[in-house]
Amino acid sequence: MKRIAILGSTGSIGQSTLSIVENFPERYSVASLAAGRNLNVALEQCRRWRPSVVSMADEALADTLKTRLAAAGITGIEVVHGTRGTIEVATLPDVDFVVSAIVGVSGLEATYAAVRAGKTVGLANKECLVAAGELIIAEAHRNNVALLPIDSEHNAIHQCMRGGRTEEVRQIWLTASGGPFRTKPLSEFANITVAEALKHPTWVMGRRITIDSATMLNKGLEIIEACRLFDLPPSQVKVTIHPQSTIHSLVEFIDGSILAQLSVTDMRLPILYALSYPERVASDLTFDMAKIGQLDFSPPDFERFPCLRLAYEAAEAGGNHCIALNAADEVAVAAFLQEQIPFVDIPRTIERVLELTPPGHPATIAEVLEQDQLAREVAHQSLGDQPQLQSFSRPFRQ
Amino acid sequence: MKRIAILGSTGSIGQSTLSIVENFPERYSVASLAAGRNLNVALEQCRRWRPSVVSMADEALADTLKTRLAAAGITGIEVVHGTRGTIEVATLPDVDFVVSAIVGVSGLEATYAAVRAGKTVGLANKECLVAAGELIIAEAHRNNVALLPIDSEHNAIHQCMRGGRTEEVRQIWLTASGGPFRTKPLSEFANITVAEALKHPTWVMGRRITIDSATMLNKGLEIIEACRLFDLPPSQVKVTIHPQSTIHSLVEFIDGSILAQLSVTDMRLPILYALSYPERVASDLTFDMAKIGQLDFSPPDFERFPCLRLAYEAAEAGGNHCIALNAADEVAVAAFLQEQIPFVDIPRTIERVLELTPPGHPATIAEVLEQDQLAREVAHQSLGDQPQLQSFSRPFRQ
């Protein structure tokens, strides 16, 4: 029986994880939950799963949850809050496996604490590897902790890696759908609207990740994650455009063999893989190889998607530049979604922030958070810097 | 240093194996060769590789080779002949790895002897697994001997199998190009000419295997090989039509993940994989995943390709029926190539022979060879049995 802590239990990955626990009660149980801000779902999860500890985003929410639990006659659940609470959830002595699925930098401290406490960690939070990858990987090595990727691309790589030893890998190939603008002429990029950018061809996702998919910054973050997770230089992490998203990624070995992983596009599969690794557990997810039809592959266009180039540069520089890439993108995407800057200014903002970022490698999570804050400030300042911005963005402003 | 015996050294697989030994002299050396009937190539291979033993098909060829070696001043090579000679080549005490690449049933005895002698065997000969698979696999288990497939499909499966344990496999998928008649209407099959059937879309191969590709009996034999090699019932071995032959085959695991192997279509890759297993050795074979373009997958048509159905039936029955499938096909294909029977009579002949085959499982290689002989006789008799044959084949006969 694996006892699971879920950081981000009310989100999509958290709920998928709970649906797996539901299906395999003989294998997995819920030890503790970090539920964030959604009180109703948190209460429901407490009722159903009876975790020993649950953490809410702040003290007020924790107090309300306590009251509601008491009113519902649910006892024996310790309610904690904040970063400290999340860390408690992640490091309880009886936890075997931590699902790290809190979106953004707020999951860093608790994930790092889980690794330090020797827990096996399933990583669904991009920031853990992009912003704090060097620290977390070093700590995982030190504690001999397994980090199992819970996203389709890196999970595919993890599976394909089993076909050889690490030193037998020539390079890896991340597949990318290419997003909604894969075939759009570069000349039309200046006029891309928010509505156009939010239409992703294959996956339904949150707003930031959908825009990141349209700029391909999303794939850029995955390049950095892959470098950290599989200990590869950026030159050994390639991207191939595969609009159908059927092959989730590939590993090319030194002898010229390439292994690929395919499956239905269902997040339960990588979660189940991570929870059950090194075993595999039978699921009802199927995929008829005789009926999948056509798969296409083509090279990525670095001119149309400058975010890819920026990500390679950040991956090469490491440390502060990876933090800045992520932070600047978050700020720029928010500005785009509020129609403050045009689509093409997302990479311009990131590039400006990267240029202004001093080289360096944070030695603690606190330093990572500090760098992240700094990069966001620079990004906000940079939003006003674009020569194009004046003329373009004025009509959208109130 | 692995010392290699090559059964079938003058054939295509034999020569590819020697080109690998040439490229990796620090890893592999040639211990012994079974060279068959090609005296000139045999002499050249003796000159270049100085095997300790070389075997020719018969005594006369062996005597001529001895004379030619003496004339060339090449000493220290023992020249032997026949099945006994091939067995000596395969079982020399200093041999570590045997490449079994003699086409047809004549390689069975020596391959079986190699397994009994505890040698690791690279299998490029279909008959070893189709006709004698049950015996050879049982003997391999008894002697804890690794059998490594040297053909693109089974080699791909072997690589993908590393992604999980045997009991975690849900099913495997063999890819099939579909041959030259993949899209030809069934109504036109009666008029298929030898020249049409010999045009294979992706691979350049021998005449029998090219016709087997056109009838898809080739894939049928591979289904049986896969059942034996990976200990799977026929129901767990599926076929998907993939005209580009880029993905060489796939393994589907119980959790719903599918692993696929891709590479250039170059036989040196599976040979190198088998020779170096469990390691991988760097080669200059590359494959740009960003530039492979389009891959297609569709279900096989059992009506147009009855040989597939016959192969599943033979695989299910095992023993004598697998021997009969292979033997009847060889006779029928030879008759088609000599324009004695139409294309559509190849499966009809095989079906007739399978119907006339008594159930049974040979206990020795001698019994396998006996069953093979019997099946060939029945096949020859069946060639005249076809109701269509009279009218169709007469114009072609002399």
Show the helix and strand layout.
The structure is a homodimer of 398-residue chains.
Chain A: E1 2-7, H1 12-23, E2 28-36, H2 39-49, E3 53-56, H3 59-71, E4 78-81, H4 82-91, E5 97-100, H5 108-116, E6 120-123, H6 126-130, H7 133-143, E7 147-149, H8 152-160, E8 169-176, H9 194-197, H10 207-215, H11 217-230, E9 237-241, E10 247-253, E11 258-262, H12 268-276, E12 293-297, H13 306-317, H14 320-337, H15 345-356, H16 365-383, H17 389-393
Parallel strand pairs in A: 1-2, 1-5, 2-3, 3-4, 5-6, 6-7, 8-9
Antiparallel strand pairs in A: 8-10, 10-11
Characterization of this structure:
Two copies of one chain form a homodimer. A seven-stranded parallel β-sheet of chain A has the order 4-3-2-1-5-6-7, with helices on both faces. A four-stranded mixed β-sheet of chain A has the order 9-8-10-11, covered by helices on one side. The first copy, chain A, contains 17 helices and twelve strands. In chain A, helix 10 crosses helix 14 (320-337) and helix 13 (306-317) packs antiparallel against helix 14 (320-337). Chain A has 398 residues and is α/β, with parallel strands linked by helices. Chain A has helices spanning 12-23, 39-49, 59-71, 82-91, 108-116, 126-130, 133-143, 152-160, 194-197, 207-215, 217-230, 268-276, 306-317, 320-337, 345-356, 365-383, 389-393; strands at 2-7, 28-36, 53-56, 78-81, 97-100, 120-123, 147-149, 169-176, 237-241, 247-253, 258-262, 293-297. In chain A, strand 10 and strand 11 (258-262) form a beta hairpin. The radius of gyration of chain A is 21 Å and the shape is globular. The termini of chain A are far apart. The model of chain A is unreliable at 387-398 (pLDDT under 50). Chains A and B meet through strand 9, strand 10, strand 11, helix 12 and strand 12 of A and strand 9, strand 10, strand 11, helix 12 and strand 12 of B.
